[in-house]
Amino acid sequence: MKIGILYDSTEVESRALYEALLGAAKSVTDQIETIDAATGAVPACINCFQCWYKTPGECVLPRDKKNEFPDRFWDADFVVIVSRILWGGYS
To answer: In this structure, what are the phi and psi dihedrals at residue 69, rounded to the nearest 5 degrees?
Structure first.
């Protein structure tokens, strides 16, 4: 079983939840893929909406590493996103 975890290490709560999830995941499997959004992997969205019209579900900006998430999580049985909800969406 493979588990993917996306979190932001700059937020205290997110880091604490990530560490708890990682401990639980390690007791079940050794296939764990993690992405720390704080390392610049996820720059802020500029709300151009091109991902809605030109390339559905994929950011058109080449600098945006969010496009790599599907490649890293495609074979995961579970993907956990640890994030605050701001204005109805992930932080």
So the answer is: -55, -45
